[in-house]
Amino acid sequence: MKAHNNADFRIAKMLRAARRFASFFLIISFTVTCCMLLFLMTFQSSAKIELTKENVALAAKLTFVNVILISLLFTIIDEIRRWFMVSRPVKHIIAAAEKIMNGDFSVRIQPIIGVDNDTGFNVIIDYFNRMSEELSGIETLRTDFIANVSHELKTPLAVIQNYGTMLQTPDLSDEKRLEYAKTITVSSRRLADLITNILKLNRLENQQIFPQKKLYDLGEQLCGSLLNFEKIWEDKQIEISTKIADEVFIESDFELLELVWNNLFSNALKFTETGGKVSLVLQTDGEFAIVKISDTGCGISPKTGRHIFEKFYQGDTSHATQGNGLGLALVKRIMDIIGGEISVESEVGRGSTFTVKLRRTTNGAN
User: What pLDDT, in 10s, does the model give residues 24-66?
Assistant: First the structure.
């Protein structure tokens, strides 16, 4: 089958060369004939010489042979030009495309160096290399995502399996049975949260969730969200400080922003040690509402801060069992969708401050 395709390719190539030769022959024949007629007519008129039939016939034969040779020469030159300027770049692009089709995203094509470097092929090659680089990055993210998901799924499943086996131990005390059952419940809840967050993040990244905007008081939403964590801060004896401006209205998606506040409050309380402090500030800055959620927890390093909004990234591995590294990725994606901004300032050992910037509605109270 491959040999048959190669034979067809060679025949097609020969036909293309023959067509180019015929084109050159016709063009050169027409041009040379016109030039020769003009020359002979001018020469005969100026020199007062009468050309014989034999002379004209001989000149015609010599001209015909010259036309054939010139056409053949132009065809060869054009073939060489097409090889260097067209066929070779196309072959490189096709070979690179085949490698990408086979999953090799590291392939890059060198620009064409010639008399005219500003060719259309160099533009195509530049875009091809950029596409390959983007695909390489996406493949790396996909591989990391699968690896992280597998790890995050494996951990709670292993806990559930181990403690489920221990529950089958004969003569197990009620205290131990209750402890094992509680551990299984916590692990299964963590597994359910992981799957829920993956589904939410997938819907957000594929733009399957569209903001449903409505006008509401941002301060009331923040207070309600913070109160949902009352038991946690009471159990850890965390001091809560709030400074909320009155009548700060925004027009946004209530449920999506609820996810943002829940994640930020959860992280602040999770990383704050017993007896620490978490503060909430809502203020206005011109046409923007500024929300700051601060804690006195462990803080993060500058290196961690650069990756903190990436999926599954957990800067503090000592708290890895309390989350799955998807919360802040969800937060960042929501901010992108609703047109808000989020940033973090942190210092190791002194805590972190997350700042959310949203466009407010100045006539909301009306």
Answer: 777 777 777 777 766 666 766 676 666 667 766 777 777 777 7
Q: Residue 354, by phi and psi: left (phi above 0), alpha (psi -120 to 50) or beta?
A: beta
Q: Are residues 43 and 73 in the same domain?
A: yes
pLDDT of residue 363: 61
For residue 346, give the nearest of 282, 283, 268 by alpha carbon: 268
3-state helix, strand, coil in the chain (%, to 5): 65, 15, 25
Q: What is the 3-class SS of 332-349, one letter each residue? A: HHHHHHHCCEEEEEEECC
Q: In what order do the strands lie in the sheet with 351-359?
A: 239-244, 277-285, 288-295, 351-359, 341-347
Q: What's phi and psi for 252, nearest 5 deg?
A: -155, -175
Q: Between 35 and 307, whose confidence is greater?
A: 35
Task: Assess if residue 113 is contained within a domain.
Answer: no
Same domain as 304, residue 230: yes
Q: How many domains does the chain have?
A: 3
Task: Answer yes or no: do 195 and 238 share one domain.
Answer: no
C-alpha angle 268-270-275 in degrees, rounded to nearest 5: 85
| Spatial separation of the C-alpha atoms in residues 366 and 361, rounded to whole Å | 10
pLDDT of residue 355: 93
Contact 264, 354 (CB under 8 A): yes
Residue 357 backbone class (left: φ over 0; alpha: ψ -120 to 50; beta: rest): beta
What pairs with residue 216 in β-bridges? 250
Q: Is residue 244 over pLDDT 90?
A: yes
pLDDT in tens, 111-160: 877 645 556 778 888 888 888 887 776 666 566 556 656 666 777 788 88
Tokens of 315: 């800067």
What's the rounded Cα separation, in Å, for the pair 362 and 327?
30
* Domain membership of residue 9 as a residue range: 2-104
